[in-house]
Amino acid sequence: MTGLVVAIDGPAGSGKSSVSRAAASRLGFDFLDTGAAYRALTWLALERGVDPEDRDAVIALVDDLGYATIATPDGTIVKVGETDVTTAIREPRITAVVSDVARIPEVRVRLTDMFRAMIAASREAGIVVEGRDITTVVAPDAEVRILLTADEAVRVARRSRELTPEHAGTATQLRDRDRKDAAVVDFMTAAPGVTTLDSTDLDFEQTVAAVLDLVEAAR
Ligand SMILES: Nc1ncnc2c1ncn2[C@@H]1O[C@H](COP(=O)(O)OP(=O)(O)O)[C@@H](O)[C@H]1O
Ligand SMILES: Nc1ccn([C@@H]2O[C@H](COP(=O)(O)OP(=O)(O)O)[C@@H](O)[C@H]2O)c(=O)n1
Q: What three-state secondary structure class fits 32?
């Protein structure tokens, strides 16, 4: 039986993956980063020379994705078939086109089915699932539903700190990606029953604590 489901959505750089991962680890819950699957499919498209805007060709690739994640003490290993793509899916060439893959409706339906199966297969006391449409589409019945936000300038600053100087233009890239993604799923306003957690003025630990408080309140 699936345990407690914690669904977390929000724009790029709001802290979804880092905060969700830390919260899951402290709760002893599983963790599912749905963005990694959209990135993995994008990686496979580029690997096979498929244009990310060629919808039919991208949809056909879902059958070949062979997506698997392996939890380790140092983080999650992401695999496509036998290939470890953990690092490759974070490369700027993937980030630049992942929104094109993610806006294909059939891709979203297929990956949503896969996420639901992964949630159902979890054998821990609970699972933290993060993305853009988890509170609204993937797991609208989750016991805890959070929209994690932060002002755009703060999100850009957080992301810029992660990047090396050759990756200039973070602000423009992040804004463009949010705009493209928001045309497909509304993750800027909380759906009914979803709690908005604004981390603009919170540090990392305070944000994790706020998530843990919301989980405690639902238990
Ligand atoms: N509340 C916070 N205060 C300061 N830095 C944060 C906070 N939340 C996340 N971060 C940092 O911001 C960066 C982006 O967070 P990340 O989890 O990758 O966001 P997302 O998954 O929403 O794109 C990371 O380096 C993370 O450590
Ligand atoms: N539930 C989700 C998760 C990600 N995505 C797409 O996948 C991309 C990468 O997701 P991500 O979570 O790694 O994004 P960031 O953490 O880089 O903001 C997003 O820009 C969306 O286009 C989605 O459409 N729906």
A: strand
